[in-house]
Amino acid sequence: MQLIEVTTSSTARDFIRVNVELNKSNPNYIRPLDKDVEEVFNPEKNKSFRHGQCTRWILVGPDGKYLGRIAAFVNKKYRNKGDEFPVGGIGFFDCINDQSAADMLFDVAKHWLMQRGVEAMDGPINFGERDRWWGLVTEGFQEPLYCMNYNPPYYRQLFETYGFRPFFNQICFGLNPKKKLSDKLHERHAHYATPDYRCIRIDKKQLGKFAGDFAYIYNKAWAGHGGLKELKKDQVLLMFNKMKPVMDERIIWFTYHKEQPIAMFINLPDLNQWFKYLNGQFSWFHKLKFLWIKKTKPCKKCTGLVFGIVPEFQGKGIDAYMIVESGKVIQWQTPYTEYEMQWIGDFNPKMLNVAAGLGDTFRSRVLTTYRYLFDRTRPYKPHPMVS
Do 194 and 140 share a domain, yes or no? Predict the structure, then answer.
C-alpha cells in the first residue's frame, strides 16, 4: 500500500474519486458536488486558512486501486468547551474494510498533526463550519442530507479499533410533516392565539427585513455560547441571497411578540434530492439540468436548519405556537412528506428537549464526533454538557 499526498490538480481529482469508487455500490449513497468538497481545500474560498492549514492523502494498492483517503487540519480557532490543550482534526475519511489500511491513514494524519503541536485529533470533522461534513454516521444509513457525511457501518469499527473514542453524538430528528399534530401542541398553541403574537412566513421581496430579524434572534439565543460569534444583518442577508434560488417561502417562518422577533423556524428543501441526479457536477450545463430537474421532480423532503427562540420565551410554549401556525401551510400546501432536522449535540439537553417536543419526532440518525488522544495515558473526557 502506498500513501500519496495531494499536491496537484490530478491527485485532487483522485481524492474525490476515492469517495465515489468506494461508495458507488451503496444504493443510499449520494455523490457530493465536487465543488463543495474542493472549496474546503481552496484558500480563496475557505476562510479557515486564515487561522490554519490542511493537507490530504490518498491510499492506493499495488495494482493502483483506491483503498482510502483522509484529510488533516489544524485551526487556531477550533476549540470545544472544556478543551485544555490544542486539538487538530481529520475528515473526508474513506477506506476499504481493512484495519491495516485505516491505520495507515490515521497514522499519517496523526504524525502530521503532532508535528504542528496539537495533542489530540477529532474526527471526522470539517476544516470549517460545523454545519457541513461533520461526524461519522453510526445510526441511520439512509440517504444523506446535503453536505452531510455518509459512510457504511463498518467505519465505526475502523475508528474505534484504532483507539478513537466518542467525544459527542450528533442527534438528528425526523417527523412526518403530513401527520396530524398532537392535541398537546394545539393546547399550548392556544395560549398564544392573541393579537399580541403572530407567525409569518418569509417574503423573498423583503429579505433585508428578515435578515435583521434572523440576526436579532440568533444573537440573543446563541451568540457567546460555545464560542459562537454574533451575526450581523449583512452576513445573514448574504446567506439568504445565496439560498434564494432554492428557498421555499412556505417553510421559513418567524414569530413576533408585539412586532418584536422572538423565534424562527428555518427550513429548506433537501438539495440532495435534486443533486443526486448530477453525478457531482455543477457546470453551466449541469446548472441548466438542475433547473429542469427542480421543475420536473418535486422535492418530497425538507430539512430543518435552524429552530431558535430568544431566551425570555424559551420553555413557555412558543415552539408549539410556531409549529401549529406554520403547520397550517406546511401540512396542506406543500409537497413534503419527509422532514429531518440537522444535528443537535447530545451535550445540549435543552435543545434536544425542544426538538423532541415539536410533535411526533423520532431519532432519524446519529453521527458521532470521535476524539483520539496522542498521549494514551491522559484521562479521556467526553464533551462537557452545556446548561
Answer: no
Range with the poorest average pLDDT among 71-80, 145-154, 217-226, 241-250:
217-226
In a domain, 341, yes or no: no
- 142 and 252 share a domain? no
Distances (CA, A) of 225 to 154, 353, 385, 386: 34, 18, 12, 9
* 223-279 pLDDT per residue, tens: 655 555 788 999 999 999 999 999 999 999 999 999 999 999 999 999 999 999 999
**Separation between Cα atoms, residue 69 and residue 239, nearest integer Å:** 31
In which band, very low, low, confident or very high, does the pLDDT at 76 lie, cut at 50, 70 and 90?
Answer: very high
The answer to whether position 237 is within a domain reads yes
Query: Strand pairing of 88-95 and 120-123?
Result: parallel
382 lies in some domain = no
28: burial class by Cβ within 10 Å (0-12, 13-18, 19+)? Answer: exposed
The gap from C-alpha 294 to its chain's centroid, in whole angstroms, comes to: 22
Counting the structural domains of the chain, the total is 2
